[in-house]
Design brief:
The protein has 2 domains: about 5-150, Glucose Oxidase, domain 3 (2-Layer Sandwich); about 155-215, no CATH class. It has 4 helices and 5 strands; from the N terminus they run E-H-E-E-H-E-H-E-H. The chain has helices spanning about 15-20, 100-115, 140-150, 200-215, and strands spanning about 5-15, 40-45, 65-70, 125-130, 150. Strands 1, 2, 3, 4 and 5 form a 5-stranded antiparallel β-sheet that branches. The protein binds flavin-adenine dinucleotide (FAD).
């Protein structure tokens, strides 16, 4: 199982209405934590509210937050059966941060988010950062990420599509070794797609519908 992980930078603002007046909508840009890469490795989610632990922990006052999401996590979770009882819930273990590269991408990403937040025009509205007092060193950042990073709910890969022996479904999404059974959902993605998963899941479903009904495969326009 592949699962994206997100860590947060939260800042109090002087006054929520100032931010609203200047129309700062929720945004999710895709910058690079490593500038040498040819594609984005992080996604930033900027939102006008102080949300910690998916709003399970509430804060008084106004604020903004910027989440850093690692787009291509190398950590791999598992979903083994708990018992032989088919009705028992499986044991879901995302094994976040089990690959050290994910931690360094998040560390660089959180630093980049803090640099963006410290620039004008945003900086003029910001008053106090909640989680850091000054520039955090690597150890502080690691502690912050291990304590607060959480899923962004994009798990994939538990029924991986492929042509190798370990793949669960073949390229037509048929379960290998069984007849008349296909899996059509996010679980067939071999790895995360480097962004949000809802639209690609819909695309997979539409493609599967075409394959099942025998409609011709779409070709590129050019
Ligand atoms: C809180 C949250 C926020 C998200 N935000 C975004 C976002 O902003 N953008 C984005 O792109 N993606 C987002 N996602 C991810 C996106 O929702 C998923 O990638 C997508 O829904 C996956 O589609 P799916 O068909 O694989 O699974 P699902 O959409 O989960 O569909 C599974 C379906 O199976 C049904 N089901 C389960 N068990 C049974 C059973 N035993 N019998 C019959 N039916 C059953 C469920 O009721 C459900 O309808 C979010 C996910 C969550 C949880």
């Amino acid at each position: 199982m592949h699962q994206a992980l997100t860590a947060t930078t939260v800042t109090r603002v002087r006054c929520r209405s100032e931010i609203n007046r200047n129309r700062v909508p929720p945004r999710a840009p895709l910058p690079k934590a490593d500038p040498d890469l040819d594609r984005s490795d992080i996604q930033l989610h900027f939102v006008i509210s102080i949300v910690e632990d998916y709003a399970r922990k509430l804060h008084m006052g106004h604020g903004v937050r910027c989440h850093t999401c690692v787009l291509g996590p190398k950590s791999r979770g598992s979903v083994p059966l708990a018992t032989a009882n088919p009705f028992a819930a499986p044991v879901i273990d995302p094994q976040f941060l089990s690959d050290p590269d994910d931690l360094s991408v998040l560390q660089r990403g959180v630093r980049q988010a803090r640099r963006i937040m410290a620039q004008e025009p945003l900086a003029a509205y910001l008053r106090k950062e909640l989680f850091f007092d000054g520039e955090p060193d690597d150890a502080t950042l690691e502690q912050h990420i291990r304590a607060r990073a959480d899923t962004i709910y994009h798990p994939v890969g538990t029924c991986r599509m492929g042509q190798d022996e370990d793949a669960v479904v073949d390229p037509e999404l048929k379960v290998r070794g069984l007849r008349n059974l296909r899996v059509v959902d996010a679980s067939v993605m071999p790895r995360l797609i480097g962004g949000n998963t809802n639209a690609p899941t819909i695309m997979i479903a539409e493609k599967a519908a075409d394959m099942i009904t025998g409609r011709p495969t779409l070709t590129g326009t050019g």
